[in-house]
Specification:
CATH topology: Rossmann fold
CATH superfamily: P-loop containing nucleotide triphosphate hydrolases
Strand content: 15-25%
Bound molecules: 2'-deoxycytidine-5'-monophosphate
Order of helices and strands: EHEHHEEEHHEHEHHEH
CATH architecture: 3-Layer(aba) Sandwich
Number of helices: 9
Shape: globular
Length: 230
């Protein structure tokens, strides 16, 4: 039986609605380690751009914004707060407009450098689960365990739709499916660090599995690698 290292990283990548954030949160709680939602950082910058009237896909204006915007992440009771210039913007970053802004802004090289530096600094010094698109391939290629979650478009859009309805956002299911496909295409075809499974990632298609089934499977993989609650 391997002993659990004091600091270890688990990478969970995959497209929107694949279940990665739910699983990251549950795994982190089960293992008693931190959870970093890297998408929230791109969302916060997308939100900051929209609030300043900047087009999130405009490299020049966004680079100027990066020179004086402060992006921070803090944790209270295991819950992530994502701060722009000291303000917790977490309540504002889950809308469809901000989702698209996050996808647009995350394709810009300056933005990726800005966020990846912070993610590495947090991830490399703490025991953590990180979820995103490029954690296993680019942010932490030496992560101790890597998962890549997928699910069919319809299933993922259905989950996203329910999340939004539960959050009180009024949306049309067809719009959610359309936006998800546009975002998938953008995120997986961009030049820099696109959504991609690392060659050593464990692939899990969550389309036909319940939340508990996916979680149990992932937890078993952690235990098999000697990653258990310390
Ligand atoms: O995981 P999410 O839906 O909250 O991510 C929002 C956007 O941020 C997503 O469309 C792509 C981008 N993103 C990224 O490029 N790299 C990451 N590690 C996480 C998210």
């Amino acid at each position: 039986m391997e002993t659990t290292p004091a600091i270890f990283q688990i990478a969970i990548d995959g497209p929107s609605g694949s279940g990665k954030s739910t699983m990251a949160r549950r795994l982190a709680a089960a293992l008693g380690i931190g959870y970093l939602d890297t998408g929230a950082m791109y969302r916060a910058l997308g939100f900051a751009a929209l609030r300043r009237g900047i087009r999130p896909s405009d490299p020049t204006d966004v680079e100027i914004m990066l020179q004086d915007v402060e992006l921070d992440v803090s944790f209270a009771d295991g819950c992530q707060q994502t701060l722009i210039d000291g303000e917790d913007v977490s309540p504002f970053i889950r809308t469809p407009d901000v989702s698209m802004a996050a996808s647009d802004i995350s394709a810009l090289p300056a933005v990726r450098g800005f966020c990846v530096d912070k993610q590495r600094r947090i991830g490399e010094t703490n025991a953590m689960v990180l979820d995103g698109r490029d954690i296993g391939t680019y942010v932490l290629p030496d992560a101790d365990l890597k998962f890549f979650l997928t699910a069919g478009d319809d299933v993922r859009a259905g989950r996203r739709y329910l999340d939004l309805v539960k959050a009180g956002v009024s949306v049309d299911m067809n719009d959610v499916l359309h936006d998800l496909r546009v975002r998938d295409r953008q995120d997986s075809t961009r030049e820099l660090a696109p959504t991609l499974a690392a060659s050593d990632a464990i692939l899990i298609d969550t389309s036909e599995l319940s939340e508990d089934q996916v979680f149990d499977l992932m937890l078993r993989h952690c235990a098999a690698r000697g990653l258990t609650r310390g």
